[in-house]
Amino acid sequence: MSHKVERAPHLQSIRSLPVDFRLKDALEDHSSRNSETVTMMNSTRVYNSLTKNVEVVGTNINNKVDSNGFDESPYGKGPYRGESLNSAASTSQSYGSSFNDSKWSDTSYDAKKKLQSWFQLPDGNWELAKILTTSGTELVISLSDEKVLKVSGDTLTPANPDILDGVDDLMQLSYLNEPSVLHNLQFRYDRDMIYTKAGPVLVAINPFKKVPLYGNDFIEGYRRKTIASPHVYAITDTALREMIRDEVNQSIVISGESGAGKTETAKIAMQYLAALGGGSGIEYEILKTNPILEAFGNAKTSRNNNSSRFGKLIEINFSETGRISGANIQTFLLEKSRVVQCAEGERSYHSFYQLCAGAPPSLREKLNLKTAMEYNYLRQSSCYSIPGVDDAKEFRVVTEALDVVHVSKEDQESVFAMLSAVLWLGNVSFAAVDDENHVEPVNDEGLVTVAKLIGCNVADLKLALSTRNMKVRNENIVQRLTLSQAIDARDALAKSIYSCLFDWLVEQINKSLVVGKRRTGRSISILDIYGFESFIRNSFEQFCINYANERLQQHFNRHLFKLEQEEYIQDGIEWARVDFEDNQDCLSLFEKKPLGLLSLLDEESTFPNGTDLTFATKLKEHLHSDPCFRGEREKAFTVCHYAGEVMYDTTGFLEKNRDLLHLDSIQLLSSCQSNLPQAFAANLVAQSESSLSGLLNKSGGADFQKLSVATKFKGQLFQLMKRLENTTPHFIRCIKPNNNQSSGLYDQGLVLQQLKCCGVLEVVRISRSGFPTRMSHKKFARRYGFLLLESVASQDPLSVSVSILHQFGILPEMYHIGYTKLFFRMGQISVLEDTRNRTLHSILRVQSCFRGHQARLMVKDQRRRITAFQSFIRAEKTRKEYSVLLKQYRAAVAIQKQFKGRIGREKFKHIQDASVLLQSVIRGWLVRRCSGDAALLQFGVMKGHETDNVLVKASYLADLQRRVLQAESALRVKDGENDILQQRIQQYDNRWSEYERKMKSMEEMWQKQMRSLQSSLSIAKRSLAADDSDASVNNDSSYGSPVDYTRPTNTGLSVISRLAQEFDQRSRIFGDDAKFLVEVKSGQVDANLDPEQELRRLKQMFEGWKKDYGSRLRETKVILNKLASDGGSGEKMKKKWWGRLNSTRMS
């Protein structure tokens, strides 16, 4: 952990100069601070003056050392190391002289004056050595293992003081050399401080373990600026604030080799943006895209268990309020070859293993899934699992993520069906059909399952995998394929299905993240792309990846080196040009036409007879004079990249670049019944280009032609660079500390190689000597002008800017004033920003206090007014309530007085009557007792005992009173029971009245129905009688053969008479029953039955009889119709009679 350093107030912002150079300016008089100090490193004259000034500094230092031996250097307090004062001068001299001579601005060093230095061991690692003695140019040093060596002074490299161990910004190092940078990074890495700043670049070292640097507490700390250490959160927060402040799109470029932690770093940045810009719910969908993309685009390699085999750019859009409003994902160069071939110890894409391990039984049965080791594509490597990773659990996570991004269950099943189809394609085998090695697929489980999953016929699939249609002179020729050609066709189909599936998923994700979201044009793009790769055998994938890194490195150089220096010159800033490694020559080797690597590759790919060997030969023939190219033996060539030389093997270059797919395979996909294969076919057709149409491959068959992989990737890369050029970039360089993926191991050679590949050291060097922060005069004055007096702030922007700088004591060497902008060294603008924020905070504090004071006064006044008003209202209300209560009290007193008087009088009268009665009884008793022939003496004796007898009778009186009270209480009980009985009698009377009304209504209804039936019968009788008389008249007047109408009439009369008799009988029965129930209900007749239940039963019987009687009347009608069917007059008679009958029938 780095030590906290105490500095003088005027030295707090000085961080980018050597210790002696800064100390000189800090201790000189303020009058000597002028702009000439900044240009001391541009000429020998300035260098000499620097040396003289340092000697003066030495004198000042001698005066500044206190009795405890502690110095007051800007690096903080610490024990003075006993270095001679001349060592500072010599160090400064070496710094100035080496600035233009060496790429490291401070590696030249007088080792005799230092006690510790860096010594490089034979294995390439650096170790801190202690200088014991010096003799001329030779020194005796002691290493950490107490080994003593005699070495030359030129072999030692200066070491920084211990107080600088573990600084969080490499720009703070006094000596920026390789061992110092490696030591500082290792010092922090060993203490789980994995993030270090290198100027504007964040260096992140993969810890290969969980470190306590993340979570809501850290997010809140970086948001509130209470945590200032380097972090991905800090970079992301800076990008978000600059986007809102400057209204300019931002980009975060994350690079590094495989296994360096790029994917995790991108997720951490997205988590911070989601935490600060969330609230609409879209941020949750954005975070859920990571499991999907990792499952379908990541795989286990020899260097990384979760290696991204594609590049991606996630553009997150924000609303005007700084909230996330949508996102878009763009992918680059998916490694399709991994689908069909996998090296030992590696795995194919995670999605295959997750499907095999985590699919539910219903889905396994539907897709005919097997275990991973039963598929040929996955069986090429013996690695089927990753330690610490549960593929079944990850499958559930992926399905949940698909639900979140609104991929329907039906589409999810189609996706898993395509994955299963790709796996089963690898199990399709071929058998020879003739002597010329022509083959056709074996009709086994693999072939049938593939046809079922993609929705095509087995015969069509067999033809697509074993034959090729080609068109020669307007004639279609079918050519059989050999075994190698058939395998290539099968693998090409599998790769195309998986690639199209990956693109389709990305498209669905983008639809979910964009549809319905409002954009404002402000966005933050996070680029997670593969880093520079160099293996023992480098193929086409490494060729494209390293080309992309060359292009990204040029963007990095343009932003940090080229554009910066050009801007200094254009704005009139005196600037010492810094040399850096420009990779334009290497980019020209790739991109120049017509003799560039990509052009020659596309040209050779168009030739039907082109091979990898002819391609390598053509490269050696045309590019042998290029300084970045070197031909090797056979099919190999070497390219000098910015990160080092890489040898490429051209085996498979042409095939991978062509990425051809037979037209038969395209037609097969388009003829499938499933939606996804049809969409894949349409997408493949849309990618075709007219420039490559009509070409024939080596076999003479027509293939589906499209843009070559290299050309398509180049176009995507140019679009990416164009997008990044329009943003403000923020760079994160991920470093892999070891190849074992083990925590705690730090390989210096590997880390140094990656630092060189990323250009980190050059970034620190140019940032230390440059002005990374710049701002226009107008913007600077507008942003900080309010800190001045009003009279000064009203001047022109340049004058205001100069006044601000002078007022806040910014040292002249810490800034430069250009024609249009102000240029600041690292950390200076943060001083002004802190002052501005503190001032704004103070203003807001004053305003809040004043407004609070005003609000409190207003509240007090309103409270006083409200209290007075409430007191008046409550007083009036109380007075009214008191007057009402007073009247009620007086009325109650009067009532109580009258009531109590009446009770008292009644009680007095009762007691008086009882007393009189008692007295009369007692006196009567006494008279009767004394009325006998008693002697006067006895009378006297009795009269003497009269008082005792009276007392005895008083006890009798109490007993009588008790009995009277008991009788009164019994009377009250009886009265209560009498009241209850009266209520019950009243209820019974009410119910009896209701029953009586019901019986009367039922009786009236039955009487009406009876009268209706009687009238119908009488009408029927009269009608039959009339018809009978008419028939007799007709018989008398007729002549010829006599017709007998008497028999049917008599028959009808007999039927009617029986119905009439039954009606009369039933009416009497129902009448008697109803009358009996009425008598039972009224209590006139005693019977053990329920009148209500019997009444309901009688009603049901009446309804049943009524229904039956009506049906028999209808039967009678039918009989009469049959009897009178022979005569016309009979028909008229029946119609007439039934008409009259129907008119009077009851409803």
UniProtKB/TrEMBL annotation:
<dbReference type="GO" id="GO:0005737">
    <property type="term" value="C:cytoplasm"/>
</dbReference>
<protein>
    <recommendedName>
        <fullName>Myosin motor domain-containing protein</fullName>
    </recommendedName>
</protein>
<feature type="coiled-coil region">
    <location>
        <begin position="978"/>
        <end position="1005"/>
    </location>
</feature>
<dbReference type="InterPro" id="IPR036961">
    <property type="entry name" value="Kinesin_motor_dom_sf"/>
</dbReference>
<feature type="domain" description="Myosin motor">
    <location>
        <begin position="165"/>
        <end position="837"/>
    </location>
</feature>
<dbReference type="Pfam" id="PF00612">
    <property type="entry name" value="IQ"/>
</dbReference>
<feature type="region of interest" description="Disordered">
    <location>
        <begin position="62"/>
        <end position="102"/>
    </location>
</feature>
<feature type="domain" description="Myosin N-terminal SH3-like">
    <location>
        <begin position="112"/>
        <end position="161"/>
    </location>
</feature>
<keyword id="KW-0677">Repeat</keyword>
<dbReference type="InterPro" id="IPR036022">
    <property type="entry name" value="MYSc_Myo8"/>
</dbReference>
<dbReference type="GO" id="GO:0030048">
    <property type="term" value="P:actin filament-based movement"/>
</dbReference>
<keyword id="KW-0547">Nucleotide-binding</keyword>
<feature type="region of interest" description="Actin-binding">
    <location>
        <begin position="717"/>
        <end position="739"/>
    </location>
</feature>
<dbReference type="InterPro" id="IPR057535">
    <property type="entry name" value="MYO1-3_N_SH3"/>
</dbReference>
<keyword id="KW-0112">Calmodulin-binding</keyword>
<keyword id="KW-0518">Myosin</keyword>
<dbReference type="GO" id="GO:0005524">
    <property type="term" value="F:ATP binding"/>
</dbReference>
<dbReference type="GO" id="GO:0016459">
    <property type="term" value="C:myosin complex"/>
</dbReference>
<dbReference type="InterPro" id="IPR004009">
    <property type="entry name" value="SH3_Myosin"/>
</dbReference>
<dbReference type="GO" id="GO:0051015">
    <property type="term" value="F:actin filament binding"/>
</dbReference>
<dbReference type="Pfam" id="PF00063">
    <property type="entry name" value="Myosin_head"/>
</dbReference>
<comment type="similarity">
    <text>Belongs to the TRAFAC class myosin-kinesin ATPase superfamily. Myosin family. Plant myosin class VIII subfamily.</text>
</comment>
<dbReference type="GO" id="GO:0000146">
    <property type="term" value="F:microfilament motor activity"/>
</dbReference>
<dbReference type="InterPro" id="IPR001609">
    <property type="entry name" value="Myosin_head_motor_dom-like"/>
</dbReference>
<keyword id="KW-0009">Actin-binding</keyword>
<dbReference type="GO" id="GO:0016020">
    <property type="term" value="C:membrane"/>
</dbReference>
<dbReference type="GO" id="GO:0005516">
    <property type="term" value="F:calmodulin binding"/>
</dbReference>
<keyword id="KW-0175">Coiled coil</keyword>
<dbReference type="Pfam" id="PF25369">
    <property type="entry name" value="SH3_VIII-1_N"/>
</dbReference>
<keyword id="KW-0067">ATP-binding</keyword>
<dbReference type="InterPro" id="IPR000048">
    <property type="entry name" value="IQ_motif_EF-hand-BS"/>
</dbReference>
<feature type="binding site">
    <location>
        <begin position="256"/>
        <end position="263"/>
    </location>
    <ligand>
        <name>ATP</name>
    </ligand>
</feature>
<dbReference type="InterPro" id="IPR027417">
    <property type="entry name" value="P-loop_NTPase"/>
</dbReference>
<dbReference type="GO" id="GO:0007015">
    <property type="term" value="P:actin filament organization"/>
</dbReference>
<keyword id="KW-0505">Motor protein</keyword>
<feature type="compositionally biased region" description="Low complexity">
    <location>
        <begin position="87"/>
        <end position="98"/>
    </location>
</feature>
